[in-house]
Write a structure and sequence with these properties.
Layout (H helix, E strand, L loop, with lengths): L5 E7 L1 H4 L7 H13 L2 E8 L3 H11 L5 E5 L10 H6 L4 E2 L1 H11 L13 E4 L2 E6 L3 H11 L3 H9 L6
Parallel strand pairs: 1-2, 1-3, 3-6
Antiparallel strand pairs: 4-5, 5-6
Length: 162
């Protein structure tokens, strides 16, 4: 990796954005990115479970960071709309990344398959949507962590990709 991965973390939560609950998932994901990936987290945000709020925040980060990681809003409830918000931004889906995350974490809990998390590329940024629980978010992130440096190199044009 030529330069550290620049990352942004978006917490999607009605309660956290309203100040009713403290964000635990965002800081947990940040710790994994810094300690295990050596990433520089340069942007953070919290938005409610609203498609346009999610898409707007992600759009603002595209091209400024290499990696956009969201936590929350990937479940089955009617308010869980993070995949829909991310798809408004993603130009090229990268479905296999989250398939791998779910496959690798399914031994820990079969509930991993209740997550509708997605991944994709927009501009020069890789977008990954993780579950809202700190444990679920970190487990899924750690399941794909080894692939992220090479993926970012390819997106940056620093590697031939093979």
């Amino acid at each position: 990796m030529k330069t550290a991965i620049r990352a942004a973390i978006l917490t999607v939560s009605d309660r956290c954005s309203a100040g009713v609950r403290q964000d635990a998932s965002g800081p947990a994901v940040e710790k994994v990115l810094i300690e295990q990936l050596g990433a520089q987290v340069i942007e953070r945000g919290i938005v409610p479970d609203e498609v346009e709020a999610i898409a707007g925040k992600m759009r603002g980060w595209v091209g400024l960071v290499d990696l956009i990681v969201s936590t929350g809003g990937t479940g089955l409830s009617p308010r869980d709309v993070t995949p829909e918000g991310a798809m408004k931004v993603i130009e090229r889906p990268y479905g296999s990344l989250m398939e791998l995350a779910r496959a690798r974490t399914s031994a820990l809990t079969p509930k991993t398959y209740l997550s509708r998390g997605i991944a994709g590329i927009a501009g020069g940024s890789l977008i990954i949507t993780l579950p809202g629980s700190p444990r679920g978010a970190c487990e899924q992130l750690e399941a794909i962590l080894e692939l992220l440096p090479h993926a970012v190199e390819i997106i940056r044009g620093e590697s031939g990709g093979h």
